[in-house]
Automatic annotation (TrEMBL), chain A:
GO process annotations (BP): rRNA (guanine-N7)-methylation; tRNA methylation
InterPro entries: Trm112, Trm112-like
Pfam families linked: Trm112p (PF03966)
Protein name: Multifunctional methyltransferase subunit TRM112-like protein
Protein's organism: Protea cynaroides
Family: Belongs to the TRM112 family.
MF terms (GO), sorted A to Z: protein heterodimerization activity
UniProtKB/TrEMBL annotation, chain B:
Residue numbers spanned by region Disordered: 1-35
Classification of source organism: Eukaryota, Viridiplantae, Streptophyta, Embryophyta, Tracheophyta
Annotated Gene Ontology cellular component terms: eRF1 methyltransferase complex; nucleus
Transmembrane region(s): none
Compartments reported by the entry: Nucleus
Domain Methyltransferase small, chain residue ranges per copy: 82-168
InterPro entries membership: DNA_methylase_N6_adenine_CS (IPR002052), Euk-Arch_PrmC-MTase (IPR052190), PrmC-related (IPR004557), SAM-dependent_MTases_sf (IPR029063), Small_mtfrase_dom (IPR007848)
Organism (species): Protea cynaroides
Signal sequence, renumbered to the chain: none
Sequence similarity: Belongs to the eukaryotic/archaeal PrmC-related family.
Name recorded for this polypeptide: Methyltransferase small domain-containing protein
Principal subcellular localisation of the protein: nucleus
Length: 112, 293
């Protein structure tokens, strides 16, 4: 599962008022190359919850993203976009679980 | 089991152009300036590469109708340049794979999500995608429950081949393959849950393609969607011995509600159905359909 997807998921358990972001329990993560498209990243940037992405990437062992939400001028920087690209699309949670931040319920993630 | 040829065996009543699965005209190549790789030269998923499981619905007439509708609308879809595409109830993965082949991946600026309530379908869809060398994020959930909050207003293209077969209500949402077809009363139980969700998830420029059966009362579905501000058009109509299918495209039309009000004031005596028919001539074949009000 890509971190783009993690960024779009929230816990849907009844009674949970804020099920976002889900915590990651990473058993195995992989990196898969995806073709770089700056326009796609610029389109996605405004839709992404930055802190959730930074934290998720860090729990996958990738700490290159700036902690603070970058302003949109960063979208002209190839260096920034490549890091964003890698975190958003190339890092995959292969085995593990997503955990509801309120109830602790686990949603397993696996390859098949 | 399946032949290589997926050309529709049924009569094509209203698909605009005849469906030509393998021939790309020069004109078409010129219209589409994106690079055509080997993979892209196949215009949809190949039936022999579609994975299967006894508990997963295999591509059938309804799946082919939906993919044919997407192919018929392909140039519009390419011009539309969607960023996020979503399929609800992906089953074998035939449709989402076909869409990804048609429109390209992140390199073309598009990302795909697909959901199914059936865990076997999630696995089979992943296998089908992989066999075609394309990617979508496939998620196990009821309709789109875990994505509904964050994906609101973001989906540019949504495709749905819902469980539309009229069944007793208690058959809806059962485990396994039954979830692929059991649609409850008039086949509308799941469709009626999906429509407000589609409205929530679709972006301002979002398009929805949905398969319906005549028994689902599609003209009434179009009226419901019209009240939410959507225009609609039938992209494919197909009749088999067993069922009469339509693939309907919905899109937001900012002027629609204003127009509706104006027209109703001008022409008070018009019954709603007649009004609808005058607006959308292609709905005319529903005149003899199952509508009762």
């Amino acid at each position: 599962m890509r971190l783009l997807t993690h960024n779009m998921l929230s816990s849907n358990i009844k009674g949970v008022s804020n099920g976002f972001p889900l915590r990651l329990d990473v058993e195995n993560s992989v990196s898969k190359e995806v073709e770089f498209n700056p326009d796609f990243l610029r389109n996605m940037f405004s839709k992404i919850d930055w802190k959730a992405l930074v934290d998720a990437a860090r729990s996958m062992g990738y700490a290159e993203l700036p902690e603070e939400a970058p302003d949109s001028s960063m979208l002209d920087s190839d260096e920034f976009l490549k890091k964003f690209h890698h975190a958003l699309l190339e890092l995959h949670l292969d085995e593990g679980a997503l955990i509801c931040p309120e109830t602790g319920r686990r949603f397993p993630v696996n390859k098949a | 089991m399946w032949g290589v040829d997926i050309e529709p065996k049924t009569e094509e009543a209203d698909a605009g152009k005849p469906f030509l699965p393998s021939i790309r005209t020069k004109e078409e190549n010129q219209q589409n300036s994106r690079p055509v790789s080997y993979k892209m030269s196949a215009r949809s998923a190949q039936i022999l590469l579609v994975s299967s499981h006894p508990e997963v619905y295999e591509p059938c007439d309804d799946s082919f109708a939906l993919v044919d509708a997407l192919l018929a609308d392909r140039n519009n879809l390419l011009e539309h340049r969607p960023t996020l595409c979503l399929e609800l109830g992906c089953g074998s993965g035939y449709v989402i794979t076909s869409l990804a082949i048609m429109l390209g991946q992140e390199s073309a600026g598009v990302s795909y999500f697909a959901t199914d309530i059936n865990p076997h379908a999630v696995r089979v869809t992943k296998e089908t995608l992989e066999a075609h060398g394309v990617h979508a994020e496939v998620l196990l959930m009821d309709i789109v429950s875990g994505l509904e909050r964050r994906l609101a207003g973001m989906v540019d293209v949504m495709v749905v081949n819902p469980p539309y077969v009229p069944t007793p209500e208690d058959e809806v949402g059962r485990d396994g393959i039954a979830s692929a077809w059991a649609g409850g009363e008039n086949g509308r139980s799941v469709i009626d849950r999906m429509l407000p969700i589609a409205d929530k998830l679709l972006s301002e420029r979002g398009w929805l393609y949905m398969v319906t059966l005549a028994a689902n009362n599609p003209s009434q579905i179009c009226r419901m969607m019209k009240e939410k501000g959507y225009a609609s058009r039938i992209i494919v109509q197909r009749s088999t011995e067993e069922e009469s299918l339509h693939v309907i495209k919905f899109w937001r039309d900012a002027e629609l509600q204003v127009e509706t009000k104006a027209q109703t004031t001008e022409n008070r005596t018009a019954v709603p159905m007649e009004y609808l028919l005058s607006q959308i001539p292609r709905l005319a074949f529903w005149r003899s359909g199952s509508r009762s009000s």
